[in-house]
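Form 7-S
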Amino acid sequence: MTAKDSGVDPKKPSTKSPKSAQSPKTKKTTIAKKAISTKNVDGRQKLIATAAYYRAENRGFGGNGTDAVQDWLEAEVEIDNF
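Output:
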């Protein structure tokens, strides 16, 4: 029996739809990854805040809001390059 005899056109794409729903295991893994990445973001922010604090301390906590923003931005670069 050939494909033609079975009524299946080999040139025509399959009409079966791909699985769109995630399996419970995949869904659990996705949730776990989000939780881990959230935890990493919180840890990163704490590290940046600490580094920015020490930068402000080194300049005697003087300055203005612009200096505080600059401390934060420099601390971000420092932590990201660590």
